[in-house]
């Protein structure tokens, strides 16, 4: 084979084609670009938005700064306007948010400007041939060739078609497949003879144009104007340019030859229909159209083809996936697909250094197959998102009209910010070059250890496991308590006003509110036997150990309640959950909390999205000390007056709620004091300035819990009177008990065992969540073994603090 076959033939000097050419050149891979136009960057009236996913790849190619400079004005503000041009939704700090989260702005410029920048950065200009419109493509066992309208033939290892929606390369590819393997392509797609592209749909048509000297469009703005069955998209451009799109819905979705091609007269007629439409209250469409320097009226096909390749032929860009222009992802997706193809070519060439001609047909097919596999779902998602957005802005149905007028005005910016993750984070980049060093809060998926994935069936199994644990908890805590007589003895004590076995009269008044006092009296009656005159030495030790083990867990509940991304979710109120488990037992309530927390975090990208920050972090540890640790110490203090002691025990009962409330009070107090004294708050730009406070919480609570765990274990091992078995495991939860103290001891034993078992599963799932989010890659078998060892060596409480400390570090990618 001659050296002329050792190249990639790229058909079309489009954004897709020139991006691919530049990528190949930078990797030392030979190429030839065949462009049908007589100039490399003709003015066809089109603008393009280059977004974070496209700019990131262009940054790797050394073009990003040129593109941003050519655009002049990044999008600073996004506005949605009604049919009178009045804004009803604004995103003022769009550029600040975009660059902070994803590292790049959103910019608009002429499409030809971007093409010129790509062309200028290609050193081997002699490998870009103009006025070479191809008419046929042929594949052979060892190479592929193209023939131009002028009868010239060019050969290469394979052919890549970046020649647009009406791609000649795609037609030729289908023709080749029909001769060799008619089942390769979907027959609806490949039926291109008389009715051209039978499967290709178009629902909308659009006049897009560029105007100069228009007043009324603020620089750095992107304006959408909602109307019934038509809409406008108006981005400002560089210099005195304004770009605009008038999109209208056609009567129906049309296919293939049904899709109209419009004349200039039809364009002008449509423009006259919309002559007096308002873009802003002071700017009408006529002002844009009268000042246009170019415009095109075209239908807007949208489709992702089911097969992008056959043999030695591949399509990319609009030839493989065509999107609505409203989200700006058409050109950016073309750059992404070119990058994915380059990655796979370079990977395949590792076994054949720089020699495309050495790649077999099977290896080339594998390159193409992997590229489509990596890009097909993403382009399909982007296509559906752009279609849905266009339907909304055209208010196509009464429901969408209602949403556009009554819901969209109240949509918080955070909703849009979170949607960016789905748009930008999954984007590919060039694997062979270092990832750009632009600062960004949200990781791109290819910066993670793996792409985030959903829990799938295992997620539902986890829900079922926690539901089962809650059911078992109900049986061991309440059904067993009824069967063994604990609740009967408790009822007698509350009714009689005394606990006979320890000869203590129950205090009757705590708050003066009878309903609350009754609850407190019942809870005090449960705790008193274990603290005053216990029937065995394990009772007070078990309760103290239980409460010390719960300290890290209560801190975790409080942290997750104040974590921003959990706001307005069922786990946002740690105090509410604290009251529930104080009244019903944490062994019963915790599995329900864990199941709901799993549901809240079910999305694949939940743990990399904005909202890890805990604003109240520095107040949680003081709140824990005052609201939980001090009251817990006090309930074990040997007060001589039983009335005072009962008051202390009653005061301890709402401790989890108190911790949450104190956290909020401290935060509000700091704000008020700072305001009164004129202090300026430290608005650190670091998104992780809460982490030192969180680390302190995990370390302090874990240390307390670990010390008590080790003290108790060592004490039991050294003591002839204490038994670890009696301490933790009830002999028979349903066997009748002699005293209320014995029954409560069994209750606390079961409560502790239940919550530690549920926590073990929760911790393991939390580690798995970090894995499936791409933030870690710990073997779950190793993780489970480590958790079990942690339970034994430092105790379940300290293990909880350790897991959450590790989790916090992983989430900030420390």
TrEMBL record:
Residue ranges constituting the FAD-binding domain according to the UniProt record: 7-354
Gene3D superfamilies attached to this UniProt entry: FAD/NAD(P)-binding domain
SUPFAM superfamilies noted in UniProt: FAD/NAD(P)-binding domain
Record has Oxidoreductase as a keyword: yes
Entry-linked Pfam families: FAD_binding_3
Localisation: Membrane
Keyword Transmembrane helix among record annotations: yes
Alphabetical keyword list: FAD, Flavoprotein, Membrane, Oxidoreductase, Transmembrane, Transmembrane helix
A molecular-function term among this protein's GO annotations: monooxygenase activity
InterPro entries for this protein: FAD-bd, FAD/NAD-bd_sf, FAD_mOase_fung
Superkingdom of origin organism: Eukaryota
GO cellular component: membrane
Family membership noted in the UniProt record: Belongs to the paxM FAD-dependent monooxygenase family.
Name of the protein in question: FAD-binding domain-containing protein
Lineage of the species this protein comes from: Eukaryota, Fungi, Dikarya, Ascomycota, Pezizomycotina
